[in-house]
Amino acid sequence: MKTTVKLLTLVLFLCAGAVYGQNPTLKVWQKGVQKDEFIYDKAPFPSCHSATMAETDRGLVYAFFGGTKERHPDVEIYVSRYEGGQWTAPESAADGVQPDGKRLPTWNPVLYQIPGGDLLLFYKVGPKPSEWWGMIKRSKDGGKTWSVAEALPTGFIGPVKNKPILLQNGHLIAPSSTEGKGWNIHFEVSTDFGKTWRKTAPVARGADDLDAIQPSILDHGNGKLQLLARTRNRAIATAWSSDWGEHWTSLEKTALPNNNSGTDALTLQDGTHVLVYNHVLPEGNLAKGARTPLNVSFSKDGKNWSAALILEDSPISQYSYPAVIQTKDGLLHFGYTWRRKKMKHVVVDPKKMKMTAIENGQWPQRKGYEKPDANTYVKEED
Q1: What domain range is 97 assigned to?
Q2: Is 180 left (phi over 0), alpha (psi -120 to 50) or beta?
Q3: What is the pLDDT of residue 342?
Q4: CATH no. for residue 77?
């Protein structure tokens, strides 16, 4: 009897492993994927989060924060570099140690490569998002070594999660937001690559009084910009600017769902727009939903979107806080948090992807793909 029970337990364990492992039908949604890898196998910290990447003249650089867990004082910013066909072991690039010795957590690194110049590392320090402040470091050697940390001017945060973009008028515009008295979006602009800054007015919350943070920027050319942002309102929010981001329309909901989790977006070299996000509509009237699956959509106009990729679909949450960049060779690089335990890197050839129109906010079905049973979702820390 005991032997039977042990065998049954083993079978159930193995079945659970199969359920929570890689979905064999996911390949139907991964056309164009050239590489799928972890940034590291082992690290001196148990938890990690919030990917950012940049291409330098020395190769790719990847950063994230790691420590005991989010908000813990030992959380630091870690950097890995792609050298000789592999990623270097994560090295601490910044911490939250204060002049008086008190230690505070760090948050949400953002990398930006100045054309022909320094690699910038933006990050936040503080006990929680409503009280953090912006910091910046610079590297002249592709992320191997970093300058002394500098605080951004009082009241400035820098790019809060997603990368700044360099506009055709020479302005570097950083998408930012605050979480103190409600969630609100604004932009911080520099004309000297981060030496001095000024702010735009907050983006109006719109008729639905949207709580939105962590915007990313799409560039439609000739000063026309679009933001896409995370919300607590069950949908990705958008707004538009026709004057290089100085003024914006009020926020409004898109047809794309949002589970109160970070997104990222990018305008490609050919003018196409890409969005990476959890295409998840929370159950009932909830604002927050499982951070799985992790999806990629494309658009020609920033309004009508087509489904292209599912990067992860395991019922084990979470796959979140993604970043996307396009390298000079035209390939797309996605980075994201993998279950808060590791950081992921996926390389995609956009010319080889298959597109399927998204209608009424519903992720389309594709022949041969079987979506994991939502009843088996396992929620991890959000």
Answers
A1: 47-151
A2: alpha
A3: 98
A4: 2.115.10.20
